Structure prediction request, 675 residues.
Amino acid sequence: MAGRILLVEDDQQIADYIVSGLAEEGFTVDRADNGRDGLFLATDSLFDLVVLDRMLPGMDGLALLKAMRAADVPTPVILLSALGSTDDRISGLTAGADDYLSKPFSFGELLARIHALLRRAAGGVRQAQETTLRCADLELDRLTRQVKRGMRKIALQPREFRLLEYMLMHAGEVVTRTMLLEAVWDYHFDPGTNVIDVHISRLRRKIDDGEVRALFHTVRGAGYRLAVD
Amino acid sequence: MLRLMSAIFVLQVLSSALAILFLRGQMLDVVRIDRERQVIDVRDDLLAAYYDGGREELADFITARRGSAADPAVFIALTGKNAPVLSNLLRVPTILPAARPQPVAVQRGVGQPPAEGLALVGQLPDGERLVVGVVSLSERRIDLAFATAAGLTIAISVLMALLSAAVVGIVISRRTHLIAETAAELASGNFGARVPIEGTGDGFDHLRRQLNLMAERIGELVAQLGAVSGALAHDLRSPVARLSAAIDLALARVEDPRAIEALQSARADADALRAMLETALEISMIEGGVVEDRRRPLDLAAVAEDLVELYDPLAEQSGVRLEGRLEAVTASADRELVSRALANLIDNALKYGGKTVTVSTGMRRDANDVLWAEIAVEDNGVGIALADRARAVERFVRLDDARTRPGGGLGLAMVAAVARLHGGSFELSDPSSGSKGLVATLRLPC
Prediction:
């Protein structure tokens, strides 16, 4: 799934890494190094996604974002911030950002979020009203809160249920630890140790143990993916 | 304080004793001079009678106790060729001639004890001897009077000394306590604390002024230090971000498993560095009060329950029993920050804390009757020595036995910063059971 991405970032080195990394993944990347050029590009051309730095010369990222939304440009935006407090995240999201990432972030994290946003924009994420989520022979019923792998019923703790629900909603995508912490636990900090890994491996044992085909996959340097591979 | 009070007391008693002794000497002198004058006055009266009417007139004056001879303290004896004429005397006292009245022992009546007196003896022109004297009050009686006075004075001095010492003590103690309380606030990290200046211009005011100056200086230095570490953390973020990005890029391109392993380890270090910078930055922001006020009524038990649940699989994997003893308690708090703080405490306890970690929440009333919402994480690990506890909550401090283990040394500093931001406190203490281990308590205003 490739696409066209606009990167608005003034730091030359970070921009280079992001551009070459995204190009590597098959994206076409345009870059602006200041807010005014960024806004011009964002409103003028058709991009699938904008990666926007919050601190920019000329016009700051939040103002750019607001101007974009005021001009009815619906392109999904990931806001990057070097400030890193949760206040920024909230003000960023209210200004119309679709996701928020604080610097420094790993490229894997950015990539996973780009994919998730593109998928969501393409209508790939299963809707909230869908009662049954599936991946291969794994089935999760949101009403009865039952989980089955083939004919095998799997008993899950409430949190494991939400974890699996999120993984199923993002089946096929890379889901990072931070995304899981945000979505399943509503924490916007990184507890640092491998807390999430242990939760995943617990869930993975319940889902994949004794099965021929594993559905849980670890993605090096990024996170996890639920898929038939 | 006690020594100062007793010194004041001893000085007071000593000075009154000296005063009494001096008074006694003066008074004895006055009494003696008075008696001497009386003796001379009586003698002059007698001599006048003698020159008026000769020996008969004198004898009559004596026996009739006329004039100055009427004083019952006066005794007179006229002796010579005739039978002695005595007034107030049983017999003639023995006395040598002298210019001034001499002390003498006299027997004044039958069955009366001998008394002391001052007397003069003189030769009349007809060869008769005239003894004139005054019975003096015995010195013992004066001494007794003085002893009584002294006793009274000492009693009063004791009372006064105690009173003044107490007053001085209370005043000094009140002033020093006020100063000490401010010093304690400074020690607890509130560098805005100041002692009120009373404008008395004395040594206490001087002390207050100096303490305030010191507090100001410490505050500036700490702020500078915080700003420096904040700026440092901030400036290091971009290089670290580029470092991570470069490692990721390399990771995606290499196939050699040994290179991948090395890059992954570099990646983990870069992540740890990033987390440390983030925490350091966050502490600076919290301490600088730059974070937005996101306090809302928050059930600490729910916060703790979520985190216990988050860490439970990790604890189980490391063979630690993690349990919650949660009592619903609401505090006005920032969920994100309190969660971070508690995550740090649980993380710490899991790393250093032995085999059982208990997270508890509840309400406590402190010594000043103020209600606090508490979150405590108790473990039965090696604990932290009492002397090291204050240092343990400082930034980038890791204690010797913790140095070999992972962790950036920022965890507890972060918790302390969160506590301060909320107007609460953070304390490390021994488990109440008396067993080894550590209790880390975060107190927030209810």
Helices of chain A lie at 12-24, 35-44, 61-70, 86-94, 107-121, 158-169, 177-185, 195-208.
